[in-house]
Design goal:
Helix content: 25-40%
Number of helices: 13
Number of domains: 2
Radius of gyration: 23 Å
CATH topology of the largest domain: Rossmann fold
Number of strands: 17
Strand content: 15-25%
Largest sheet: 9 strands, mixed
CATH class of the largest domain: Alpha Beta
CATH superfamily of the largest domain: P-loop containing nucleotide triphosphate hydrolases
Structural class: alpha/beta
Shape: elongated
Length: 405
């Protein structure tokens, strides 16, 4: 098996992705552990407000199963153009570019019936192949929860990603949103702050505020978890009307309480950006990008287990660079129960980028590749640390696949 070719392909894809991302100064994930909190509305209007502030902005919709950005921005029916070197996003002018899986569906109501590996690959394609050009901000609208799409985009962008967490005031939403905060902390994603959406309803007739979903839950959570609070956005029926009509709420109802609240959120984001430029320096084009890989190796008695599905533990080796002398962190995990499809799912959940194995069946290899995980088969029975060092230095040689079935 030509493992050198697999390694070269993986490295080439990583270099392409890093080259794109180096031209984007800030990557902001809009996250929520709860559906129905208005996250896409917040993402779209944050992107617009940043563009109106004179920034070059991209808006990336990675909600594969429910892409709402095309509808909200009046872009239904638009298609992505392929050019030499990648895919062109839809350009709205006024400093704002958009990409969404919705631009690639044959019809607006066509369902996307995909498992995790396909979603992983399309997110990687959006980052690697879309010709964004030079951006100040890439705002990423993620689906709710901490599943495939948020995990994939976070792994691609960490540690450079930032996050804005969206909640509504009521306790049932706040409890779920706390999971997104822990998700960011485990992945070392810096949280810019909390936005409390649907925070009270301002009556258009009398001006009185009615707390339909209570109020203050997001502010309290931010205080308890020692995070910045970016603002409370009240319920405004015009937000719904604007989204249904494919118009930006901020441009149609400028000066309304909800629009002013959005402007407050953006002002605080920009203030943090201006205050912390040294914390998030631009990548110099002459600087080698740092690559973080998680390499999974089945082991028995501390060395590579030649039969992939019958190991004692998996050594999960995390690298902090691409050079052989890079730092390595090794964690040993017990494998899941041995049943069809369990290992591919489990290793994908663990965030594995590469698997080094002695022997593996062809069907298992295909399942891993569908998950976007590189497979190196036929390695010798060495220690995990030595195997990873050889992999990084391109000196890892492969012999016979002892489990080719």
């Amino acid at each position: 098996m030509n493992t050198e070719g697999n390694i070269d392909t993986h490295q080439q894809e990583q270099e392409q992705l890093q080259a794109r991302m180096k031209r984007i100064r800030r990557k902001i994930l809009i996250l929520s552990g709860k559906g129905g909190v208005g996250k896409s509305t917040v993402a779209a209007n944050i992107a617009l407000a940043l563009a109106r502030a004179g920034k070059q902005v991209g808006l990336l919709d990675i909600d594969v199963h429910g892409p709402s950005i095309p509808k909200m921005l009046g872009l239904e029916g638009h298609r992505v153009s392929a050019v030499e070197g990648g895919l062109l996003p839809v350009d709205l002018g006024d400093n704002l570019k958009i990409i969404s899986i919705g631009f690639m569906l044959p019809e607006g109501d066509s369902p996307v019936i995909w498992r995790g590996p396909l979603k992983y690959n399309v997110i990687k394609q959006f980052l690697k192949d879309v010709v964004w050009g030079d951006l100040d901000y890439l705002v990423i609208d993620s689906p709710p929860g901490t599943g495939d799409e948020p995990l994939s985009i976070a792994q691609f962008l960490a540690p450079d990603a930032l996050a804005v967490i969206v909640t509504t005031p009521q306790q049932v939403a706040v409890s779920d949103v706390r999971k997104s905060i822990q998700f960011c902390r485990k992945l070392q994603i810096r949280i810019l702050g909390i936005v409390e959406n649907m925070s009270g309803f301002i009556c258009p007739h009398c001006g009185k505020t009615v707390d339909i979903f209570k109020t203050g839950g997001g502010r309290t959570m931010a205080r308890e978890m020692n995070l910045p609070f970016l603002g409370s956005i009240p319920i405004d029926p015009n937000v719904v009307t604007s989204s249904d009509d494919g118009r930006f709420f901020l441009t149609q109802f400028e000066g309304s309480p909800a629009a002013q609240a959005f402007e407050t959120v953006i002002r605080l984001v920009l203030e943090q950006d201006n205050a912390e430029k040294e914390l998030f320096p631009m990548n110099n084009k002459h600087t080698d990008p740092v690559r973080h890989l998680k390499i999974a190796i089945p082991v028995i008695d501390g060395r590579l287990c030649m039969h992939f599905g019958h190991c004692q533990h998996f050594a999960m080796v995390t690298t902090t660079g691409t050079k052989p002398d890079t730092g390595l962190a090794v964690e040993y995990l017990p494998p899941p129960s041995h049943e069809p499809g369990a290992l591919p799912r489990w290793l994908h959940e663990q965030g594995a980028d590469v698997i080094i194995a002695g022997g593996m069946g062809s069907r298992a290899q295909e399942l891993f590749r569908q998950s976007g995980i590189e497979v190196v088969v036929g390695a010798s029975a060495d220690t995990p640390e030595n195997l990873v060092q050889m992999y990084l230095s391109n000196t890892l040689t492969s012999g016979q696949n002892v489990c080719d079935h």
